[in-house]
Amino acid sequence: MRCGSSSTDYLYNASMSRFTDRLVPSLLLILFLLATVFAKAADRQRLAPYGTFIATTGRIMMIDLKNKTLRVRASDDQLTQNFLLAKQGDTSPVITFPGGATIRFPQRTGRHPSPAGSTTPNLNQYMVVITGKTVIQDGAEPMRLEDFTIGETISIHGWYAGNTLTASRIAKWS
Hints:
By secondary structure, the chain is α+β, with helices and mostly antiparallel strands. It folds into two domains: 1-46; 52-172, CATH 2.40.50.320. 32% of the residues lie in helices and 34% in strands. It is built from three helices and eight strands. The protein has helices spanning 5-43, 78-89, 116-119; strands at 52-64, 69-74, 94-96, 102-104, 125-138, 141-142, 153-161, 164-172. The chain has a five-stranded mixed β-barrel. A two-stranded antiparallel ribbon has the order 3-4. It is elongated, with a radius of gyration of 29 Å.
């Protein structure tokens, strides 16, 4: 029988216990950080949207096949147009507190503000931009931009900013 083996066993077990007590939280932290890095890398390919995402309908006024754009007249009701106008015109800084309380900071305007028509986009007509990722379809059937005609009503989903709607999906509206 060896002398002192119980004390070395105790020290060994005590140090292993401290090691395993720290190992599990450390491994969880490493896994969380790796998942965050992979999620960020996967999200890097996504386009950064600017504006407000909307789904609307409109009548085609002009088709530009070369630039892949449509000039569309809105067929939405006045409520939607008022909402979009309010979203565009409200650029003042805002602080929102927990519970929903908000403080808006007014912005200075010039002594002679420009006429409303020159700065306010025409919400009755807007430009629709078709990108390489835009889905164009008639029901479930895929379509080409050339298949649309002037005067036709279409459904558009996309990012609305200024007077431009960058389409993610366009479909015939019957």
